[in-house]
Amino acid sequence: MNIDNYLAANEANWNDRAGLHAARDGSGYGVGRYIDDRTALSDVVEFDRQLLGDIAGLSAVHLQCHIGTDTISLARLGANVTGLDFSAASIAEATQLARDTGDSVQFVQSDVHRALDALPAGSFDLVYTGIGALCWLPSARAWAAVVSDLLAPGGALHLREAHPILWAMDESLTDDLFLRHPYFEHAEPLEWDDTETYVPTATPLTATKTYEWNHSLGEIVTALIESGLRIELLIEHESVPWEALPGQMTLGTDGEWRLTERSGVAPLSYTLRAVKPA
Question: Which residues form the Methyltransferase type domain (predicted)?
C-alpha cells in the first residue's frame, strides 16, 4: 500500500467513529454535557488550562479537531476558533454540536497537510493540537511546517499529546509494561484492525483498519525548531486522558488515567508550547 491508501483507510475509520463518538445517549464522548452546561470544558482543555493562559480574543485553529469538543472548549475560553479535520463525518458532527450548544465556532474539512489550501497563511495567534493526533500523520517535519505556516509572527503552538513512550508500549500485555512498537518515526506504519474505539460506543466499528506512525519526542522538537519555531515549554506528564493500558491504570478525579502499580515509571503524555518569533 502507498501513503494515500493508508490515509484513506484512516479517514474511513474516523468517519465511522464520528457518529458513535457524538451520540446523544450518553455513550461516546458524552456530548450532552456541553449542551446542558454552557460552561463545560473538555477534560483535555481543562487539564492544560493554566498552561494555555489567557486566550481570549486570539485567532485560533484546532488541527485534527474530530467532533469539536476541544474546539468548543477553546471558544468558551474566549478564542475565535476554527476547527479543521479530514473527516467529513467529524466536521458534520462538530458543526451540529456547535449549533446545539450555541457556541460560535467555524469548522473546515481538510487534511492537515493541505491546511494552507483551506485557511489563510500566517493568520493565527494560536495553533492547538490535542491528544491522540500526531500518530495519524506520517511525518513530523511535514506537520511542523504546516503549523509554522499557519502561525502569525508571535503566535504559538500549544500541543498536548500522548507520549511516544506510551505509543511504543504493547497494550495487549496487561501484567507489566512492555516496549514492543517503534519509538522512532518509520516510513511504514503500524497496522491495526479493531472493532472498538477508545470510548464506549453503542455499536462496533465497521471500518476497522487503521495505520499509525510514532514520532519520537526528539523528532517532534527538532521538526518544530527546523520550521522556525522556538520551544518555550515542554512538560511530561504521568497521566493520559483515556485508559491507554487496560488493567494497569486508575482513573483520577481530574479525568486522567495513571499507572496503578508503576506510577511515575514512564511519561504517558506531554504538553509543548512553541512560538513563532515576531
Answer: 62-157
Q: What is the pLDDT of residue 153?
A: 98
Q: What is the DSSP string of the chain?
A: --HHHHHHHHHHHHHHHHHHHT-SSS-TT-THHHHH-TT---HHHHHTHHHH---TT-EEEEET-TTSHHHHHHHHTT-EEEEEES-HHHHHHHHHHHHHHT---EEEE--GGGHHHHS-TT-EEEEEE-TT-GGG-S-HHHHHHHHHHHEEEEEEEEEEEE-HHHHTB-TT--SS--B-S-SS--SSPEEEE-S--SS--SS--S--EEEE----HHHHHHHHHHTT-EEEEEEEESEESS-SSTTSEEE-TTS-EEESSSTTSS--EEEEEEE---
Rounded to two decimals, the pTM is 0.96
Span 31-62, pLDDT tens digits: 999 999 999 999 999 999 999 999 999 999 99
Per the structure, the complete domain to which residue 237 belongs is given by: 3-275
CATH number of 210's domain: 3.40.50.150
Cell numbers linked to 141: 517535519
How many domains, the chain? 1
pLDDT tens, position by position, 192-227: 999 999 998 999 999 999 999 999 999 999 999 999
